[in-house]
Amino acid sequence: MVGYLFSTLFFKKSIRELYSSLVDGGNATNWMSTAVKSHRRRLRQIASGSFLRRSKMFAVRSIRSLQFTFSQLGGTQQCLRSLSGSSNVVKKNDDMPLQMENPYKQPQKGCILCNITVDFKNVQLLSQFVSPHTGRVYGRHITGLCGKKQREIGKAIKKAHSMGFMSVTHKDPHFMKDPNICDIRHLE
Amino acid sequence: MPRYELALIVKAMQRPETAALLRRTVETLMERGAVVRGLENLGEKLLPYKISKHNERHTRGGYFLIDFHAAPGIVTGLLDHLERDIDVVRPTVLKNDPEPSNGPCCGPPVASKLQDTV
Fold it and tell me: Where, per UniProt, does this protein localize (chain A) (predicted)?
């Protein structure tokens, strides 16, 4: 095991400390904290990219070996935390973004007939989607309705035509002054 | 029993004659086993276009709505009977079942999973 430790030349300082503490037979908590600190510092350095030239695999291998030794010596959960990915410990990464719902989310826009029931009896409403000159039903690109409502309006208008509620060739003169919903400008 | 609506356009007549017509129409419905829920008067209006019926050209007419529950089998018989009535200009029977509202209207498609995948 000692030879294994020596093979990781990467973490000279921390390993030296370990070995010295092993030889001394010092207090467990003492050498553990310093070793952990230096280990963490090394990890941070690696994360920042200062040791980029060294192969990452080597670093990982050496870290794993350290982990192994720590676990053997009864290492605390703390030093295993950053790499092991144990599920029972909550990961606290200060740099990563928080998961939250989009704060700039706009409320969903519906079409103008969103919660309005379309009926063949409501001739005034139906007349708003019909040309005043010819009585033709406007298309979706003019009315701006969603698919469902456009179809409902179309069907209701045809029903009203056949049942004798609404005129086919013109718009009822009483409804000529209604506000213009559709995206169309009429010549005066 | 499904729910129907009879949209009746009747000849422009005096009040007692219209009342008599409505009475016999509702009686016909009840004879055939329909349960009449209600009767609405939409007023006497100018027809949207001139309608020729029973050798007459009609310009004005009275609009009535009769809401009823009936067996589906009687509908054709009822329409046949109403067509023969000379005071009725245009009878129409429609289904009137209340539709269940399907969630948010006019929203974006519910299964838009493309945004979630990174």
Answer: Mitochondrion
Tell me if A164 and B90 make a contact (CB, 8 A cut-off).
yes
Measured between beta carbons, the chain B residues lying within 8 angstroms of A111 are: 106
Count CB neighbours of A156 within 10 A: 22
CA gap A54, A38 in Å, rounded: 18
pTM comes to 0.64
**Residues in CB range of B27: below 8 A, 6 or more apart:** none
User: Which of B7, B3, B25 lies closest to B87, judged by CA?
Assistant: B25
Cβ–Cβ gap A111/B47 under 8 Å: no
How close A51 comes to chain B (CA, Å)? Answer: 30
ipTM: 0.86
Q: Is there a contact between B51 and A164 if contact means CB atoms under 8 Å apart?
A: yes
pLDDT in tens, chain A (188 residues): 555 544 545 555 556 665 555 555 545 445 555 655 666 676 676 655 555 555 555 555 655 655 555 555 544 444 444 555 555 566 666 888 889 999 999 988 888 888 889 999 999 999 999 999 999 999 999 999 999 999 999 999 999 999 999 999 999 999 999 999 898 888 77
CB atoms inside a 10 Å sphere around CB A94: 4
Q: Which residues does chain B have within 8 Å of residue A164's beta carbon, measured at their own beta carbons? A: 9, 47-49, 51, 61, 89-90
Determine which of B53, B106, B110, B118 to mutate to test the interface with A (most A C-beta atoms within 10 Å). B106
Evaluate whether A1 touches A69 at the Cβ level (below 8 Å). Answer: yes
